[in-house]
Write a structure and sequence with these properties.
Blueprint (H helix, E strand, L loop, with lengths): L5 E2 L10 H11 L11 H20 L7 E4 L2 H16 L3 E5 L4 H12 L3 E5 L9 H7 L4 E7 L11 H10 L5 E5 L11 H4 L3 E5 L10 E5 L25 H15 L2 H22 L3 E3 L11 E6 L4 H9 L3 E2 L15 H5 L4 H5 L1 E5 L6 H20 L2 H10 L1
Parallel strand pairs: 1-11, 3-4, 3-5, 5-6, 6-7
Antiparallel strand pairs: 2-8, 7-8, 9-10, 10-12
Helix pairs in contact: 1-8, 2-8, 3-4, 9-13, 10-13
């Protein structure tokens, strides 16, 4: 089977919907113009951008003028975090040890600039400690940031409870959310959660790579972090691809036409995958929560006594793409910092496999994947002295 025939790494990027490509094509050819004023081509692009922003805003319960197009979710996170900090000039920030690398690297940068940062711990299912959040708030705390859906184990953070804690403080604490794994996988009305800024990305929901957006609530001050001529957006000046923005809007339109139906489909697929894994492979453990506390597209398991890197490479030989550990922390075969933070050991981390599904996956693909995974697991465990010792004890 050719490479990528069964693609189960949709948390990193997802296949573009055919309708998205069709929506983009006119903006690569006859409608290539940048927005502007005084002439019809520029005004036409202004009108199109306004419509695209409205589509995306509607999906999160926002207003079109609260949407800023960016060159991806990482840029959106940087603009929000550095921008809010730049407006505050000094003070205290809170995040957690299981947050996405965008947030953690920005937190480290803030510390170098003289800000103080508190890092909350997480429980065994990667849910942040709410009592610790309450205790961490100080008179100079101006920002709390979180990853709505954990990028490794799929945990959905308790957003309403977090919002209530922040609102109960005796001063304003801005709430920034990374929604890279949450957008399109759960209802996300920004007012329900009291979110002030939020990053989203197109290529996680079958849109094009290289485009995202930042939601900025009206009245929230964000200092300028990127400087240059305004084309499509004031927070990210310079040229942004209108074609990519058009594709982004089409992907949102498709995904949110029946969001609950899409969520049900993904939940059914992920439940089926987990059931098949339990049927075919022994000594396997789910990482993160079961049920509604987990994003519908994510299944992360540790397969005891063998390494995930070996499994991933052998699955790849069968045309199956699956991640091991955290795709954003696996360079150099390092243990996943998220799995280690929730109490897993190095063996469990290195033996972890992360399957992330999309609407284009099928049960037939899952059956094929589990069949090959079971074969590979059996082969690798034959070479594992620890596994053979355990099996002998069980006899």
């Amino acid at each position: 089977m050719k490479s990528g025939s069964v693609y189960l790494d949709n948390c990193v990027t997802s296949p573009m919907a055919p309708e998205v490509l069709q929506a983009m094509l006119p903006y690569f050819s006859e409608r290539f113009w940048f927005p502007g004023s005084f002439y019809s081509t520029a005004e036409s692009t202004n009108e199109a951008l306004s419509g695209f922003a409205h589509t995306i805003a509607e999906a999160i319960g926002a207003q079109a003028d609260e949407i800023h197009f960016t060159a991806g979710g990482t840029i959106a996170n940087n603009i929000a975090i550095k921008g809010i900090a730049g407006a505050a000039k000094k003070g205290h920030v809170i995040c957690s040890v299981v947050d996405y690398p965008d947030l953690l690297t920005n937190a480290a940068w803030l510390e170098k600039q003289g800000f103080e940062v508190s890092y909350l711990s997480a429980d065994s299912e990667a849910s942040i400690d709410l009592a610790a959040l309450k205790q961490a708030i100080r008179p100079d705390t101006f920002l709390f940031m979180t990853t709505i859906v954990n990028h490794v184990v799929g945990t959905i953070q308790p957003m309403k409870e977090i919002s209530e804690i922040l609102k109960a403080a005796d001063h304003k604490i801005y709430f920034h959310a990374d929604a890279g794994q949450a957008f399109g996988k759960m209802p996300l009305a920004v007012d329900d959660y009291g979110i002030d800024t939020m990053s989203i990305s197109a290529h996680k929901i079958h849109g094009p790579q290289g485009i995202g957006a930042l939601y900025q609530r009206k009245g929230v001050r964000v200092a300028q972090t990127i400087h240059g001529i305004k084309r499509a957006d004031n927070l990210q000046p310079g040229g942004l691809s209108i074609a990519l923005i058009a594709g982004f809007a089409k992907a949102v339109e498709l995904n949110f036409a029946d969001l609950l139906g899409s969520i049900r489909q993904l939940r059914e697929l992920s439940d089926y995958l987990y059931e098949r894994l339990l049927e075919k492979i022994d000594h396997i453990e789910l990482n993160g929560p079961q049920g509604e506390g987990r994003a519908p597209h994510n299944i992360n398991v540790s397969i005891d006594y063998i390494e995930g890197e070996s499994i991933a490479m052998m699955l790849d030989m069968h045309g199956i793409t699956v991640a091991t550990g955290s795709a954003c922390a696996s360079q150099g075969l390092k243990a996943s910092y998220v799995l280690m933070a929730i109490g897993k050991n190095h063996v469990q981390s290195h033996g972890s496999m992360k399957f992330t599904l999309s609407r284009y996956n099928t049960k037939a693909q899952i059956d094929f994947t589990v069949e090959k995974l079971a074969e590979i697991t059996a082969e690798l465990r034959k070479r594992s002295p620890l596994y053979n010792a355990i099996k002998n004890q069980e006899k």
